[in-house]
Amino acid sequence: MISKLPHVGTTIFTVVSRRARELGALNLGQGFPDYDIDPRLAELVAQAMRTGFNQYAPMEGAMSLREAIASKLERYYGLRRDPLAEITVTLGATEAIFSAIQAAVGAGDEVIAFDPAYDSYEPAVRLAGARCIRLPLTQPGFRYDWDRVRATLTARTRLILFNSPHNPACTTASAADLEALADVTRDRDILVLSDEVYEHVVFDGARHHSVLCHPELAQRSFAVFSFGKTLHATGLRIGYCVAPAALTQELRKVHQFNTFSIAHPLQEAIAGYLREKPDSGAGLAPFFQAKRDRLRAALAGSAFALPPAQGTYFQLLDFSALSKEGDLRFAERLLTEAGVATIPLAPFYESPQPLPFVRLCIAKQDATLDEAARRLNRFAGAVAA
Length: 385
Ligand SMILES: Cc1ncc(COP(=O)(O)O)c(C=O)c1O
Description:
By secondary structure, the protein is α/β, with parallel strands linked by helices. It is about 40% helix and about 15% strand. The strands form three sheets. A seven-stranded mixed sheet has the order 2-8-7-6-5-3-4, with helices on both faces. Strands 9-12-11 form a three-stranded antiparallel sheet.
């Protein structure tokens, strides 16, 4: 059989998690919490199953959950979205991204993504038969080069993949970035897929700029979210896509033959949870900011530098003062010599850049973060000696 994705192997996240388990290393690589979920959510899941929500959910998503999402959009962003026509529940953000890309592009089309790019984007574009053009965010600080974006647009450009707060750069897009995105897509047949899974994890009092709040971008965007991130439960695999009715209609045509419908009792449980705790999202920024600050303080005296982290549940570690090795090699050393699993940035690039960063996940118990910092400090001390 001829591979449709000849360059795709097992994702770096799966590989690193497997090796961390084998080596007994602390896993700050893959982005998932190592602490318990709210027990109330677990109760609501059991309750939903006992109540009998055990058969197919509606293809578009359980109405209770779509209504809860609509209330959430109103509460956090002052937006009114129609749960019938504009909100679709998906199998995590990953499915929303995949289905939106299949719906939006086909053979001969071009899609722009910004490197470092989340690893599911390009394979989804290729499977749709389209071409993914990857533009690096510029250093320092992973900034958008909007002139380069403009110069890259062709008559075949159909979609721009946007991500804020950004994994793995840990940056947040500014209002000016959204303006620029609106400007480059204006009067062209170009849609936007905005990956906003870390919408609530924005630090230092800043606010998240969603494409949904930009009236012009909202008209041509699929905005993608994840309950795995907001409920500290990546295993739930429930996300959603908010898009204008015409785009939603096309998205659902793919979704219904991709996953058809999403775990019914989990949807009912999340709907119940959001009704009971409508402000739970607001607690995420202070919760993760405390973890970010704890880790940064614990590493402050080391030879590692810590680039600003404006959002997401990650922190980059700059190892340039310690080593001139590439990030893949340095991450391997941290895994085997320091006993800390991290994620290098090279796999997020089409053409890996010589960047001195590895990514640490801060969605961990304080004790895990403290122990990781202890190991990293000891390693840095030994390398510097
Ligand atoms: C930027 C980004 N997009 C999408 C996803 C996928 O989200 P989900 O787990 O809901 O599929 C992740 C998960 O880490 C992510 O970091």
